[in-house]
TrEMBL record, chain A:
Keyword Ribonucleoprotein in annotation: yes
Protein name: 60S ribosomal protein L6
Organism: Paramecium primaurelia
Keyword Secreted included in the entry's annotation: no
Molecular function as annotated in GO: RNA binding; structural constituent of ribosome
Coiled coil segments of this chain: none
InterPro entries (alphabetical): 60S_ribosomal_eL6 (IPR000915), Ribosomal_eL6_KOW (IPR041997)
Family: Belongs to the eukaryotic ribosomal protein eL6 family.
GO biological process, one term: ribosomal large subunit assembly
From TrEMBL, chain B:
MF terms (GO), sorted A to Z: RNA binding; structural constituent of ribosome
GO terms under biological process: ribosomal large subunit biogenesis; translation
Large ribosomal subunit protein eL14 domain segment(s): 46-120
Source organism per UniProt: Paramecium primaurelia
Occurrences of domain KOW (ranges): 9-39
Highest taxon in the source lineage: Eukaryota
Protein name: 60S ribosomal protein L14
């Protein structure tokens, strides 16, 4: 009987010896971006995305390096949101955030849930009505939870904002550039 | 156009160019047709030679400044009669101060100025309407101004 041959499975792809590896990431987790002098309670102007030009209150920096901001939602419609500090102009206006508790919010708060991902898998044709009853109630509780967190975080913030005159209207307005404004000369 | 402002000893000048831009000083000595010696002990200008081209002449004179006077003499003369504060009260100086203040406004300040301007304008227009109604046909000279501050 012939000796059993040892076979090595060769897949469809194998590395050749002289293949250059261009970029090897040595660090496994991203390093959180260094925060230029942005302080909790500072008003920031968002520069990109759906809420461009909106003035929001900075709460804290998350572990991923992104900034956690909130409108507050009642004032300008911006919810608890993660924002890249590169797309933000910090202003010199500060709100007192000593009563605000955002400790329970971290990057996981913004993670997409299984149900959301499944929904996205079905893609374009998936409609809200097509969720099962179980999924719908799960969605509802999820959204209610989010609304409650939003409210609890914003409550102390709004009372602090109301103490300064015109600050509420200021946060409700968008930052705009007109024909004569020179952004490089503006003091924020 | 009369010849009002001369380059002379005691003339208060404003420096237009250079590291001392914007500061006031007095002419102490005229060196030639292009350069003068200036000094501004109370305005932070060191005694120095400067081309006339870098100065604007103001309409003020420092009384008691003599040719080549030393800084101490100049300081005494300023204590007696200060033309520098007189200059700060002119419209030109106030415009410069206003411009400087506006440049320093923060984003929130600019927003507040905008709101106050709108309020003032609304007050003015209601007053004007009321006056026009009362003086049908006549142009009223007196307009009550709102009490709002404008920066």
């Amino acid at each position: 009987m012939p000796a059993k041959k040892r076979t090595v499975r060769i897949g469809n792809w194998y590395k050749s010896d002289d293949e250059k590896v261009h970029f090897v990431r040595k660090r496994k987790a991203p390093r959180p971006a260094k925060l230029r002098k942005i302080v909790p309670g500072q008003v920031l102007i968002l520069l990109s995305g759906r809420f461009q030009g909106k003035r929001v209150v900075f709460l804290k920096q998350l572990k991923s390096g992104l900034l956690l901001v909130t409108g507050p939602f009642k004032i300008n419609g911006v919810p608890l949101k993660r924002v890249n500090s590169a797309y933000v102009i910090p202003t010199s206006t500060k709100v007192d955030v000593t009563g605000v508790n955002a400790n329970q919010i971290d990057d996981d708060y913004f993670k997409r849930t299984q149900a959301q991902r499944r929904k996205n898998e079905q893609g374009f044709w998936a409609k809200r009505g097509e969720l099962t009853a179980e999924q719908q109630t799960a969605e509802k509780t999820r959204l209610d939870g989010k609304r409650n967190t939003q409210k609890s975080v914003d409550a102390a913030l709004i009372t602090a904002i109301k103490k300064t005159q015109l600050l509420k209207q200021y946060l409700g307005a968008r930052f705009t550039i007109g024909k004569t404004t020179r952004p490089h000369e503006l003091v924020f | 156009m009369g010849l009002g402002k001369f380059v002379e000893v005691g003339r208060v000048v404003k420096i237009n160019y250079g590291p001392q831009e914007g500061k006031l000083a007095t002419i102490i000595e005229i060196l030639n047709d292009k350069r003068v010696l200036i000094d501004g002990p109370t305005t932070g200008v060191q005694r120095q030679v400067i081309p006339i081209r870098r100065l604007t002449l103001t309409k003020f004179n420092l009384k008691g400044a003599t040719r080549g006077a030393r800084t101490g003499v100049i300081t005494k003369a300023i204590k007696k009669n200060d033309p520098f504060t007189q200059y700060q009260n002119t419209i030109a100086a106030k415009k410069v101060a206003k411009k400087a203040l506006r440049a320093k406004l923060t984003d929130f300040d600019r927003f507040r100025v905008m709101i106050l301007r709108k309020r003032r304008s609304a007050l003015l227009s209601t007053q004007l309407k009321a006056l026009r109604k009362n003086n049908a046909g006549g142009k009223s000279a007196a307009q009550a101004k709102g009490g709002n501050k404008k920066k």
